[in-house]
């Protein structure tokens, strides 16, 4: 079965518009109005008329110009094989009239050099009858199969060149499924409508992600005449599942931390805290986050039966994460894409001078430059051995103050003990030179001198 997206189609008009017929066509004696359709230009037809029942229905044509003679021909497999209709009567006003229209055939109406081509169809010969609809078995992970009881012959017609075509019944199959809402990060129920072009005793549709009933209605011709039919199935129990996952890394806005330059890459400088979360559909019974040392997940080192988990990566290396789930009987499963976490080797660089109290925001805070430092302790002393600052986070810095006041310029000393994500231990010590800059009086460019 070929499905297409649901659209609202009216009988007037259906397809691309064509130039209006030269004269006026009308039907008399019909119990319900004719459904007028404008077919594709490639058919050569100006109109297709679907009549509720052609029994006792007459067809008339009023020429565009009074006094014009109209020649009627009837055909089935192409206008070139048309046969003239001698039984056509001409009324006083010039309207030509066929007392009993012949169904399921084409008509050519020749008015001088103007030709009008139409096809007249008797819906009674193709009437849709819907008697029932039911799921055929439990379905599978991707499709649901439905059995339809009833009938609805193909509504065939021919183009003016004799090409066989069929009218679209536009039958509607409605059911519910689940759709992921990216704003609320949850699956929500949504009504879905598929359009079936013609009656089929077997329908195959994408498997719904929740338990639902199926309702088949139609067709568009019965809709037009107010006699639409509808059948609804018993409750369908879905086996299909789906999952949606994401990974969010906690941001650190430390200007002295060397992180990954690649947007969207997880990891970078340790410690890296990442939250892995998943949402699943109704039929999911088993769920698991997995961590592996290889991209093929041959060596899984961690399994967590949670929808969300937060992990802090403190060791250098590459880690692979994915989410997997399945339904209750294990017949359907789903696996997310793989999240790769790269934790780089550690680095620790120590500056040896800065200038607090000079130009704000320009080298006025002493900070180390680092990457993947998971343990850090720093002490700073003056030349008399007095501790003037202590830092316990590599993202912290010294603003050159002691007890709320800027210290004097000169030489200070630091001692650092740290450890990287790769296990490397750092023991560093050295001097820090505090410079104080002075600007010359007057205008012009200021010169700087170190005190």
Automatic annotation (TrEMBL):
Region (Disordered): 247-266
Record's keyword annotation contains DNA damage: no
Domain of life: Bacteria
Keyword Signal: yes
A Pfam match: CHU_C
Signal peptide residues on this chain, from the entry's feature table: 1-22
Biased composition (Basic and acidic residues): 247-261
Keywords: Signal
Name the UniProt record assigns to this protein: Gliding motility-associated C-terminal domain-containing protein
Organism: Sodaliphilus pleomorphus
């Amino acid at each position: 079965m070929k499905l297409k997206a649901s659209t609202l189609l009216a009988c007037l008009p259906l397809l691309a518009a064509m130039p209006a017929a030269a004269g006026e066509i009308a039907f008399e004696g019909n119990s319900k109005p004719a459904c007028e359709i404008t077919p594709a230009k490639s058919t050569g037809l100006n109109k297709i008329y679907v009549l509720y029942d052609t029994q006792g229905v007459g067809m008339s044509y009023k020429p565009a110009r009074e006094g014009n003679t109209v020649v009627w021909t009837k055909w089935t497999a192409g206008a070139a094989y048309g046969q003239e209709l001698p039984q056509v009567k001409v009324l006083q006003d010039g309207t030509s009239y066929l007392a009993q229209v012949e169904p399921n055939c084409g008509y050519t109406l020749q008015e001088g050099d103007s030709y009008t081509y139409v096809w007249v169809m008797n819906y009674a010969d193709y009437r849709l009858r819907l008697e029932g609809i039911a799921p055929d078995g439990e379905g599978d992970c991707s499709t649901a199969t439905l059995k339809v009881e009833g009938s609805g012959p193909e509504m065939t017609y021919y183009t003016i060149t004799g090409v066989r075509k069929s009218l679209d019944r536009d039958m509607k199959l409605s059911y519910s499924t689940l759709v992921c809402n990216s704003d609320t990060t949850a699956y929500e129920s949504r009504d879905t409508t598929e359009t079936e072009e013609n009656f089929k005793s077997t329908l195959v549709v994408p498997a719904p992600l929740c338990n639902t009933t199926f309702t088949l209605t139609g067709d568009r011709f019965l809709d037009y005449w107010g006699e639409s039919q509808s059948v609804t199935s018993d409750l369908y129990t879905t086996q299909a599942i789906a999952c949606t996952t994401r990974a969010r890394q906690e941001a650190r806005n430390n200007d002295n931390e060397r992180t990954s330059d690649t947007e969207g890459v997880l990891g970078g400088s340790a410690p890296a805290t990442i939250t892995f979360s998943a949402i699943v559909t109704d039929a999911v019974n088993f769920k698991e986050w997995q961590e592996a040392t290889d991209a093929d997940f041959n060596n899984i080192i961690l399994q967590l039966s949670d929808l969300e988990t937060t992990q802090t990566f403190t060791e250098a290396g590459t880690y692979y994460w994915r989410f997997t789930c399945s339904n209750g009987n294990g017949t359907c499963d789903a696996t997310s894409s793989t999240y790769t976490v790269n934790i780089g080797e550690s680095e620790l660089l120590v500056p040896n001078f800065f200038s607090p109290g000079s130009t704000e925001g320009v080298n006025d805070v002493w900070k180390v430059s680092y990457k993947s430092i998971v343990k850090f302790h720093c002490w700073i002393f003056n030349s008399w051995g007095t501790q003037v600052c202590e830092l316990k986070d590599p993202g912290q810095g010294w603003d050159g103050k002691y007890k709320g006041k800027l210290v004097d310029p000169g030489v200070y000393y630091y001692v650092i003990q740290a450890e990287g994500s790769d296990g490397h231990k750092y023991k560093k010590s050295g001097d820090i030179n505090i410079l104080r800059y002075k600007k010359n009086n007057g205008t012009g460019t200021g010169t700087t001198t170190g005190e």
